Amino acid sequence: MNEATVTMPDGRLLGFAEYGDPSGVPIVGCHGVPGGRNLYFDEEVLLTHGARLIAVERAGFGLSDPAPGHSLLDAAGDVVSLADSLGLERFAVLGLSLGAPTAVACGYKDPDRVAVVGLACGVGPVFDQPRFDQVLPPEWQALLPVAREDPATALELLRAVAAPVAELCATDPGSQFETMLETASPADRAEMEAARQFIVANLLSTYLRGPDTFAEEVMASVGPWGFSPSDVVVPCCLWHGDQDDLAPIDVARFVSAELPDSRLTVYPGEGHFLSSTHHGSWIADLTRPW
User: Fold this and answer.
1) Which residues pair with 239 in a beta bridge?
2) In b/e form, how buried is each residue of 120-142, taking b as 16+ CB within 10 angstroms?
3) What are residue 6's phi and psi, to 5 degrees?
4) 53 touches 116 (CB < 8 A)
5) Mind listing the pLDDT tens digit for each residue in 210-222?
């Protein structure tokens, strides 16, 4: 893994890490939350498919400077600026969980260069779709009505929820991982355990600066997208577990139906942390346009 930063047009630093083949097909990876530049992908899988995975840290995570009040399209703009800095003429984008909205936004913002978008266990545009509230996790059911009426209050609520987690992660992120593991769906626990070191590292990346990064990112990704999935013309591949209790399959099916050019693969019995055995087929889909 090689780590670095680039300077955004407004002077902020944006952090990223690179994995796989340095001269391979560029895939920009958009992490979930908790998240950061530590993506759980086997190096051999990337090398086998000739892939160069560039794991970008969104504003406030890890090496990246904060950008208070940033929107989803702002996050996509950072990815485009990173691609400019790295001289990427054409690239794929992979969004994981809460990174999926940013990945879709990249396809919307730069369709001439984004060859394909991949969405694994992706969160959808639930802010604009109250009909899905009843299938969402209880915390989202409580947050979304507030966010729709009073975003500032919702942001403060998120900060309050994240504050004790940030305090714990500053000294003992492993304990927070154990809490996550205990409360996770049985369908997720084996994959979470396999990815333990990556999740712990990403807990540090997420809460490095306290609760603000978590709160700002949730509001940017779960709040209004600023565009419709139907406006995204690039090909999109979706991979989703039918037992996902964090990003329900009903929402994934809606997003797939809205995207003009999409293919949804459903994994029976799998939850939010999809099996790493699928990574090879994902990377194959993302490198196929080349």
Assistant:
1) 120, 265
2) bbbbbbbbeeeebeeebeeebee
3) -130, 155
4) no
5) 999 999 999 999 8
